[in-house]
TrEMBL record:
Protein's name according to its UniProt entry: Inhibitor of apoptosis-promoting Bax1 family protein
Pfam families in the cross-refs: Bax1-I
Membrane topology: Multi-pass membrane protein
Main localization category: membrane
Length: 211
């Protein structure tokens, strides 16, 4: 009975994750109509919401409305990136990036879910890698990376978030899921997916531009 209940909650996490992608898609479409001057405030709001989510995580009080509002805003702020690579390398590159992301996410999710060993020991290494990506990303704003440097950075980012997908699915399997954790776990999967998508889009965009 407990296994059936756990499977049901796990399916609920995937359902909320799927809905969050729909909200992000709606945000992506809305981004076409948002003035560029508003993108920076929205990005700041997005970062603030991520920080808030980590703070609320301890209280397990991240709600569905929070998740859907965040993913909608995330879709808006992702639009300039998608539009840039679509104009530079073609719309088909965006579709290829999304398809590749979906495929990698599915494969890594299955690997994480079927792995019998608890991969919790990877948490520190993944956090360090994530902080390094953030630091390099901030540094590149003031000192832009070369095309080769950006390609290497994107490959590393794609690997890190692929491992995060494995890690998150593995932790859900080994540590169980309660009803109140559903929104937060769905948000974690969304962050894995959208970051993986952006890094893959950058890889394909750079390679497509160089052809």
């Amino acid at each position: 009975m407990e296994a059936i209940q756990s499977r049901s909650v796990f399916q609920k996490v995937l359902g909320v994750f799927a809905v969050s992608l729909l909200f992000a898609t709606a945000g992506l479409y809305t981004g076409r109509f948002i003035p560029p001057a508003l993108m920076m405030p929205l990005m700041v709001a997005e970062i603030a919401m991520v920080i808030a989510a980590f703070w609320l995580r301890r209280k397990k009080s991240v709600g569905y409305l929070f998740v859907y509002a965040f993913t909608f805003i995330s879709g808006i702020t992702t639009y300039p990136i998608v539009a840039y690579y679509a104009s530079q390398a073609g719309a088909e590159v965006v579709l290829l990036a999304f398809g590749s992301t979906f495929g990698i996410f599915a494969v890594m999710g299955v690997i994480g879910a079927v792995t019998k060993r608890d991969l919790g020991f990877l948490s520190t290494a993944l956090l360090v890698a994530l902080l390094a990506l953030i630091f390099i990303g901030i540094f590149s704003i003031f000192s832009p990376l070369t095309s080769t440097g950006m390609l290497a950075y994107s490959f590393i980012g794609a690997i890190v978030f692929s491992l995060y997908v494995v890690f998150d699915f593995n932790q859900m399997k080994h540590h169980g899921i309660s009803e109140e954790m559903v929104p937060l776990l769905a948000l974690s999967l969304y962050l894995d997916f959208i970051n993986l998508f952006i890094y893959i889009l950058q890889i394909l965009g750079i390679l497509g531009r160089d052809d």
